[in-house]
Amino acid sequence: MGGVLIGFAIIGFVILVGWLLARFRIVSQEGRLVLNKTSFFAASPALLFTVLAESDVQLLFSSVLAVALLAFVAVALIYIAVARIWLTKDASRIALAAAASGYSNVNNIGLPVAIYVIGDASFVGPMLLLQLLVIAPVLLLTLDILTSGRASVAGILTQPLRNPMLIGSLLGALVAAFDIQLPAPVLAPLEILGGAAVPLMLLAFGISLGGERPLQPGTGRREVWLAVALKNAVMPAAAFLLARFVFGMDDQLVYACTVMAALPSAQNMYQYALRYDRATVITRDIVLLTTVLALPVMLLIAWLVKPA
């Protein structure tokens, strides 16, 4: 469990630095947009390319992937139904919060969890590929359509090809699929650039916390709590039920699927919200609260579900 604590401590420290930069007015709230754009258009595409280039694309067809996909769809549909009926009619706001209800922090928290809690880093692969190659493109395409004002068929079909993060993901997947061995001079600059992606996202997230406290009145608190309940409680429960009773997995795989489903919402959600200028406060609060609650939830899962 020490690896999980270390993972949370690392993320918390970088977020704290961002908050201090805003608190002492070293960086303004507008400055976080610069960090976000740098990550979105440069660092994140490089990171996604290098990570996926070394992934096993065949993992997309594993039963672990099926559990992750079905659990995500379940919580997203629940959020959409409840939010649309009782909370808001804003489609882009619903889309972002619904995605945040199931899109997990696989990169930053998932890896130490897989290594130190489950004991096998390979469980990161299916979720990473699912989120980058399926969920993120669908979400970004949806946001493109909802925020564009008008959308032609050609524009809708070609919009993903103009998104740098999706381009980086697809190119990395192709390299992995065809087992292309890239030379070190090609990978090295991309790895350096990609190394800046997560710190930039976390700093921008921390700076946003210096603007106003989370869960302020009038900021969509009911929407936030709905998403938090789905991410921290319903999604792990759905993954457990699917793995145990639908796919009939053994105890170790059931435990792995449940723990991975309990990961907090990813900072990518806040990055996307900033990029499209929609639901930024809501997604920020969802990421923050699910991150705070994820550790006790995973400790509870380890106590209840972990094989003897």
TrEMBL record:
Protein keywords: Cell membrane, Membrane, Transmembrane, Transmembrane helix, Transport
A Pfam family matched in the record = Mem_trans
Q: Which GO terms describe its cellular component?
A: plasma membrane
InterPro entries from the xrefs? Mem_transp_PIN-like, Na+/solute_symporter_sf
| UniProt record similarity statement | Belongs to the auxin efflux carrier (TC 2.A.69) family.
Q: Which domain of life is it from?
A: Bacteria
Question: TM spans, by residue?
Answer: 6-22, 34-53, 59-82, 94-118, 124-146, 166-186, 192-212, 224-247, 253-274, 286-305
Gene Ontology biological process terms in this record: transmembrane transport
- Membrane topology annotation: Multi-pass membrane protein
In which compartments does the protein localize? Answer: Cell membrane
Protein's recorded name: AEC family transporter
Principal cellular location given in the protein's record: membrane
**Species assigned in the record:** Agrococcus baldri
